[in-house]
Amino acid sequence: MKRLLSNITAAAMLMCSITSAGIPAAAKETRTDILDRVKFVDTAYSVYAPDTLTQSAFEMDGLFTESHQSTAESPEELDRILSEYLLEAPRKEFEAQYPEEFFYDYTLMLCTYMDPTRGRLVGGHKLQSAELETQSDGETVLYLDYTSTFGASICKTHCFEILQVIVPNRIYPTLGWEWHCTESLEPGLVRFRAEDADTGETLNVPGDIDKLTILPTIAYYLEDVDNYAYADMASLEFSYDMFWDASQYMDADILDFSLSQASLPEGWTLPENYRSVTRYENGSMDVVFRLRRDIPEKGMLRVWLKDADTGALIVSRNQNGGFGSIGTNISFNDPQYGTVSTGPILMIDTNPCVQQFDLMFSGDSYEYRLSEWDLPRGYSSNAVFSNGVSIPEGAIEATRYENGSADIVFRLKFTPTGDVSGDGQSTVSDAVSVQKWLLGEDAELADWKAADYNNDNRLNAADLTLMLRAALSVTP
Length: 476
Prior knowledge:
Number of helices: 8
Low-confidence stretches: 1-29
Distance between the termini: 72 Å
Number of domains: 4
Shape: extended
Largest sheet: 6 strands, antiparallel
Helix content: 10-25%
Strand content: 35-45%
Structural class: mainly beta
Radius of gyration: 30 Å
């Protein structure tokens, strides 16, 4: 029985470069090219079809993002391999291509491929070379080098593929084989990627970063004035696939990209030399932006108050002009004195607020909550963070860093009161004050946020309409 390879990670297989297939040149000299004696087949499936794959589109990442290599020499082996990925009906349809008599003369080599753009931009795959090599230990290896090409336009609705190479049994090696993928970009296509500057890990968009805003610089040199004419380009915003078709600008004398500090996602900053650009002969480009987590200094705690619905930083303050306080209950088990507890109150003067607090996660048990009596106006929270668990789930989130610092995020629920006068009541007179204020008349609003009924941190006519409906008890 020939060796079955599986669970070979995408990191080991997918060499993301646009060079010739990724085997050292010295090793290639010993190879025997048999490309014209094998056949390459690609079968694709949609992750959004519930009657196709063994996992749904929302569950499949753990199963399919790790590329698997395998070989089948019988219908039974093929069925066993496919049962991990395909439901019965599509599995039987796939297997019909390879009846029992097929395996009398051929061996089937399989490799799974997950389109990282979720079926949008990978235009196809091409087998570049199939070469045999006899190694120094006498083992024969079949190297299969293929290219996956990214295009500028949406071209598919599927993103899980099973790549197949049909090999005549008379040349099939008795031992191993290796698949190698080289990713290629169509001419003029620019691919952007963000990575953690400290770890080198790819940052997911969305996920680690909600979106990425990129500033292109495009200029053409004008000989008659000995200067550059710059194209008027808007910023590029990416919230998923980070590809841009720049084919119309390939003749530009300057084509560059940058990120502005102001556009960075919350919690990230730009280190020096944050960008690298690789240009290829066909005019395509790979642009990598390196971002560094903006973490507090050693022993410092950074507190964030965010709106539970919008995710925005809370701007309204409490009646004392602050953002509230955190009540703590921290216990230590002391061999001599038993349980020792402490409960300092942490004042939140700004949002976010950074302060020294080494005890935040050091107790044998701990509990934190916002003091309900001094929350920002219009907001409420009854959440508790107890021994690393938020109750209710997601209302409080803590992130601890290796230097001993931490971020803790409280998500508060906003309910507009309409009491812009601050007298404890919401009446029609409050709505009249808002109307005067919007018209530029002399009107004082003690708490404008109380009338922000659509919770967008702005006060306008839309809020006034909702406020009047609430005041008059009119159903929309």
